[in-house]
Known about the structure:
By secondary structure, this protein is an alpha/beta fold. The chain has helices at 8-20, 23-30, 34-48, 64-86, 107-120, 172-177, 226-234, 244-253, 282-305; strands at residues 53-55, 60-62, 95-101, 124-130, 144-148, 156-164, 166-170, 192-195, 203-208, 211-216, 221-223, 239-243, 257-258, 268-275. It has 3 domains: 5-86, Winged helix-like DNA-binding domain superfamily/Winged helix DNA-binding domain (Arc Repressor Mutant, subunit A); 95-160 and 268-305, Periplasmic binding protein-like II (D-Maltodextrin-Binding Protein, domain 2), CATH 3.40.190; 166-258, D-Maltodextrin-Binding Protein, domain 2 (3-Layer(aba) Sandwich).
Amino acid sequence: MHVSLEDLPALALFARVVQLRSFTAAAAASGLAKAAVSQRISRLEQRLGVQLLRRSTRQLSLTESGVRLFEHACTLLDVARAAEGALGLGEAPWGRLRLNAPGTIHRGQLARALLSFLDQHPTVALSVTLDDRLIDLVTGDFDVVLRATEAQGRTSVARKLGTDRIVVVGAPSYLAAAPTLRHPSDLVQHACLRNASLPERVEWRLGKRGQRFSVAVRSRFESADFELLRSAALAGMGLLVTLSMAVEEDIAAGRLREALPDFESEPLIIYALLAERIPARAAARALVQHLASSFRRAERRSRSAT
Length: 306
């Protein structure tokens, strides 16, 4: 496989197809017809004598040769972006981004932030999934992942968005009928709603005046769907542990109450994580910047309201 200078435009187009996971999106971003993009990639494959992409009606995937070439093609795009930056041109955000966020995130807050982002960037599209599973940023097929945790490892670049805390909440009807709850150790007597996306043995960790308490809770009801868990808590089925932002409106309205208000969790930092396997596109960088600003404004409003 020998690459010449004449192949550079096609290589850049190949990298764009892979990053956007679509010939159609790459064509729109490049100002070309979809057929023209397909033809240029096919000619590149013919000239190099290798297959770079496996094409199907539903998806594109890289061959082994495509994976090796893609890394170098991304480097080519980075050089082009650096040259544009040196000239003060820069790259405008464009293309489809895949965002993954916790199911326990404040959905209204996230939706408002994403709506304002799309209003500001009409050439960007978003695909959003919500779940609490641990995401492998190398194979997870997401451009941006939000998590309320410490960023670990060397496979991601993290940007702090804000902070939150864990709360234990229950419906007034449940708390009125359940055993008295004064201390985290009392949780073993209660029905607890478990997030099935998290490890099976879950310990709820709370503290007071420098002391930390860790309690292994039991559960007769579990689900990987946070909205179902929240609905179960609202119906009085048991106690739910979650991010404060996810239930702040229910608490304000009296639908849920904090079960152990005198005990606090360690603060959690909400991060936006960018996969290092693909150099961050302008759209991904712009989304993370916008989310950081939106979360900071929401935190300021929350502090001023308390």
